[in-house]
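Field reference: sequence -> structure
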Amino acid sequence: MTSAPFLKKIFIFSIPLILTGLLQLAYNTADVVVVGRFAGSEALAAVGSTGSLINLLLNVFIGLSMGSGVMVARHIGSGDEERVHACTHTAMLMSLISGVFIGLIGFFLSGKILVLMGSPHDVLPLATLYLKIYFAGCPGSMVYNFGSAIVRATGDTKKPLFILASTGLVNVALNLILVVFFHMGVSGVAIGTITAQYLSAIMIVIHLTRLNNSCKLHFSKLRINKTELLKIVGIGLPAGVQNSLFSISNVIIQSTVNSFGSVAMAGIAAGSNYDSYVYTATNAIAQTSMTFTSQNMGARKHENVGKIYRYCITIASIIGVVMGAVGTFFSEFIVGFFSTDKAVVAIGAERLSLIMPFYVFCSLMDVAAGQLRGMGESFKPMIVSLLGGCGIRLFWIYAILPMNRTLMFLYWAYPISWVATFAVQFSLYFILRKRIFSSNA
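Structure field:
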């Protein structure tokens, strides 16, 4: 990752990463399609409306997994095998502890939070059931996320792809068996999801124990290294807090959607699934930028950082524009996969047509933040994202939305926040790079 040709290496690294994310989403989409077509619109609303709450509770720890990947990549770049070893074992022990912790919180508090979100009475029992089962799978989810971040830091994005491809098939098969044949509804898709999560965790751990480099996992050496822990937290916690606070604004938006009833909830849930595909594809480029930049910072090859950023931001732009155009022009066709209810399809398609032309700015915003994190700067992009993303959305909901309280006017909060946040993040990169390079010289 520290020598040219960078464009070719970025493609080799990022394509499996994109496919991994898209496969994961495809299996999550299968959950929504199965319940939407075989368990009804209430089940679709229940499963689809829980995403913002799941992200709220998980994102701090997902951020820490990103911090783990950045630090492992940094140590690999500097050739410090002892630190790579310490960071790997610290991260994997953190993954298990954080998975159990967040699983318990989600299991016992998710129902109460759904009530505070104003979930309709016809959706609340199903949504609560889905979340309780889902959060029981958090230890597996966290172990996989931390483990795959470490594997990707070594330059291997193919193994996580293989793992998700195989365990995702198990997820889809269980969805169909439990929902279509055993009529288990939301509990069926939740059981399928957590089964796949634990299988993914087992497979990534087995892979780590078989590595022949300093990332090799030894169960007897699992312990927290204070120095590495602080570095992981320093990089990962601001990113996790940023994403969780973003999720707070999304939870508030979801609460507003809930007030429009279960049909609106189902339509928004169906339409927002396509957003996830665009975000995942371009976020993989942000992770690529972060990992490549981190290794080059560790190797003190600062002259490569600008090239990496230019390549990554160009690729993300192309992906965002193309996928945004598809979402705009084929909105009804896309939403029709999730539901045959005409009212549900109409709401979901209208939302897609509104935000997809602007989604490229969300893509660029993530690449800019990922670039800064790879350079070791995590706090300032967090503040910018909170003010530009979370702050603007909350201002829109409480100050602007009451002037025209409609479902589509609510969703203008997203493109406005994306454009503003990217503009500041992009500028911040040029402002900070000279100081960062000087301090790392």
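Note: Residues 95 and 143 are 5 Å apart (CA to CA).
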